[in-house]
Amino acid sequence: MGLAMRAKTPIWDKNNKVIGVISLGYLNSKIDMWRSSQIFPLTSVLLIILFMLIFFSWQFSAHIKKQMMGMEPAEIARVQRQQDALFGAVFEGLLAVNTQGQITAINQNAQKMLKLDGPQKNLVGSLVQDLITPADYFLEASGTNRVDDLLMINGLKIIANRVGIWIDGEFQGWVISFRRHDEIHILSAQLSQIQQYVENLRTLRHEHLNWISTIGGLLQMKEYDRALKMVQSESSNQQSLIDSISSMFKNRLIAGLLFGKFHRAKELGLEMCFTPGCSLSAQPKPINENELASILGNLLDNAFEATLKNPDSNKIIECYISDEGQELVIEVSDNGLGIEPHISERIFTRGVTSKNNGGDHGIGLYLVKTYVDQYHGTVMLGDNEPCGTIFSIFIPKGKDGMKDEIS
């Protein structure tokens, strides 16, 4: 029969005696035939399974890599280290919040400024309203990006910027960067004082060059008496102006600002008048002197520009400042063309301006309104007679606190 695979087993009776043998076998040729008939389908199935495993593994790997923005694990680790270093190196406070109001990232400066205790890893995942008061600025479900908003959070006055996080067109939360207001305030004050000093020098230089040229001409013509009288008159006028401004405005920063603006108006062919009754103490309350200088500077600059645009105006700008009563009162009137009604309703909105060339305009009055709102003050806009606009500001001296939030 040929080679075969056999198995044998004995047959036992009830007395445990062998009474026979059972033999079972398969010819090797039949086994080979069965193996040949089964190996191809089995191999095909295994190859198909292997191909499918490779394909799905590749698809899964591509999906994971897409989720990781095409980066390898080593690259992700490097980016994470770079992000940690960047967060630590940024001077401003940085805070990221998701749509559920949970903090997803925070740097050391933010933690320090907001006086948040504990390790950063423990703060991540916390609800922002549990750590920051008020938290409305961080919890808007949607909205526009914000720039240089003045806020009061956790008892600290800050300047904040807010940028939305969008992934595949879906809003995911906010990134807020902020810095202490007093740091910006100091830099702004220093810059403002330098700019004021330079402007005053430039104006006086221009005025005195004309004056010196006149004196030089008189001296060449041997009109010595007239030259002497002109020197005495100019000196007397300057000293009279200085004495007048200094007597009305005891604060040296404000007095210096108004002295410079007076000469600037004169250079532009305008006349700047101080309304009788002006009076300002050395330390005006409740507003900071630098903020007051910013308000006056912006209002006067706008008044100069508006008056110059009106060829039929009397070229007079009037200014009134007083803190003698229960309120700090500021009033600046021009003789311009006035403000159009559709603009007057939004004139204090950032970026809105009545000037033809927008450019960087639309910030001055926004800052004025922001400073006034900090101290619970009021800004009023009215018509001047016979033409122009009057800006009136009233800041109560009894309320020197800030609003919780200005947005």
From TrEMBL:
Molecular function (Gene Ontology), one example: phosphorelay sensor kinase activity
Source domain of life: Bacteria
Locations listed in the record: Cell membrane
Membrane topology: Multi-pass membrane protein
Stretches assigned to the Histidine kinase domain: 288-399
EC number(s) recorded for this UniProt protein: 2.7.13.3
Reactions that this protein is recorded to catalyse: ATP + protein L-histidine = ADP + protein N-phospho-L-histidine
UniProt xrefs under InterPro entries: HATPase_C_sf, HATPase_dom, His_kinase_dom, PAS, Sensor-like_sf, Sig_transdc_His_kin-like_C, Sig_transdc_His_kin_SpoOB, SPOB_a
EC top class, as a word: transferase
Keywords per UniProt: ATP-binding, Cell membrane, Kinase, Membrane, Nucleotide-binding, Phosphoprotein, Transferase, Transmembrane, Transmembrane helix, Two-component regulatory system
GO cellular component: plasma membrane
Membrane-spanning residues: 39-58
SMART domains linked: HATPase_c
Keyword Nucleus included in the entry's annotation: no
PANTHER family: SENSOR HISTIDINE KINASE DCUS, TWO-COMPONENT HISTIDINE KINASE
Listed name of the protein: histidine kinase
Organism, as annotated: Budvicia aquatica
Annotated gene: dpiB_2
